[in-house]
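Please decode residue identities from the backbone states below.
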């Protein structure tokens, strides 16, 4: 895939912060859209697009007013159409519960999808103790899920706990998000031993039901450690056992063997339905020395 056809989009304060970090790491010609009403979220650079929700005098966001953010996003549709012109895949990052993210992310997803792009969204839900924000977030989540092909739900509580364990501030706990975005971008951009392409991705995202993504890293001779690292993700709880669609990309160093790829892939898919549609990709990457990284996209999950 041409990198310019991939757009990382951040919506709202946290979403933009995550998107900037993910873009810095995945760079390589991938485009970045920053969508917010708050100037502090913006940045400039090659391939970076700023979509400002509102007027220059407003410095502080949409003050927890999702309908206002949605309306402003709709008002930007001709600008958005320009940004989305080359885009085939949008990786959308946002945190729900405030105004901009909750209102504008689902409207941006709608516009992107209408233009034919695949939309993979990662949406964080507020801390459990933030009751009012949770209610706002739930309503926004339902609309985002209806618009995006895949919506991965992140738990801010789990993200913050992991950041704390690493001695970082809670909102910096984005390493997992960067791994995920980086894994996806690499999966789609580079040629592999076994090639995956956009059609494969479409086949997986078009399954009915819920979907999620997992990223795991571990030693080539210890596939179980890779699965365990994937299951440590700060995702909201979800039972992936019944998934009917699965795209799995295994990436390892020059010494990786087909046997190792096979062992990892069988372990990751062992919990799935017998009839599940599994698409496997693998590639060798010089920068992975003695480790294997797995990116998995699971779809067709039935809610309990
Ligand atoms: N406890 C805490 N939670 C925060 C803070 N900032 C963001 N959050 C959480 O992250 C969610 C999204 O926040 P932002 O990305 O800043 O929201 P936004 O989309 O920019 O929304 P507006 O600024 O209202 O337009 C909130 O609903 C909170 O759950 C913070 O400083 N403290
Ligand atoms: Mg804000």
């Amino acid at each position: 895939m041409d990198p310019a056809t991939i757009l990382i989009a951040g919506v709202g304060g946290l979403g933009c912060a995550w998107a900037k970090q993910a873009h810095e790491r995945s760079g390589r010609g991938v485009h970045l859209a920053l969508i917010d009403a708050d100037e502090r979220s913006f940045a400039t650079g090659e391939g970076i697009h700023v979509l400002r929700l509102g007027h220059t005098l407003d410095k502080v966001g949409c003050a927890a007013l999702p309908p206002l953010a949605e309306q402003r996003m709709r008002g930007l549709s001709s600008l958005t159409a320009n940004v989305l012109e080359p885009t085939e895949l949008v990786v959308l990052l946002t945190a729900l519960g405030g105004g901009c993210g909750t209102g504008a992310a689902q409207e941006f997803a709608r516009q992107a999808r209408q233009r034919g792009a695949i939309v993979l969204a990662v949406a964080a839900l507020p801390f459990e103790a933030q009751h009012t924000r949770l209610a706002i977030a739930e309503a926004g989540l339902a609309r985002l899920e209806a618009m995006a092909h895949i919506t991965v739900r992140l738990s801010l509580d789990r993200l913050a706990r992991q950041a704390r364990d690493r001695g970082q501030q809670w909102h910096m706990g984005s390493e997992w998000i960067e791994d995920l975005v980086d894994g996806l971008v690499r999966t789609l951009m580079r040629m592999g031993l076994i090639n995956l392409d956009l059609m494969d991705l479409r086949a997986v995202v078009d399954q009915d039901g819920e979907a999620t993504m997992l990223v795991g890293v571990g030693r080539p001779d210890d596939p179980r450690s890779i699965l365990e690292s994937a299951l440590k993700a700060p995702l909201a709880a979800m039972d992936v056992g019944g998934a009917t669609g699965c795209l799995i990309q295994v990436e390892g160093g020059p010494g990786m063997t087909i046997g190792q790829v096979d062992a990892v892939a069988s372990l990751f898919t062992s919990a799935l339905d017998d009839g599940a549609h599994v698409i496997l990709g693998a590639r060798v990457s010089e920068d992975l020395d003695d480790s294997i990284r797995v990116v998995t996209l699971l779809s067709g999950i039935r809610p309990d």
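Observation: The beta strands are 6-11, 31-36, 48-52, 89-95, 118-125, 150-155, 210-218, 245-252, 277-284, 292-301.
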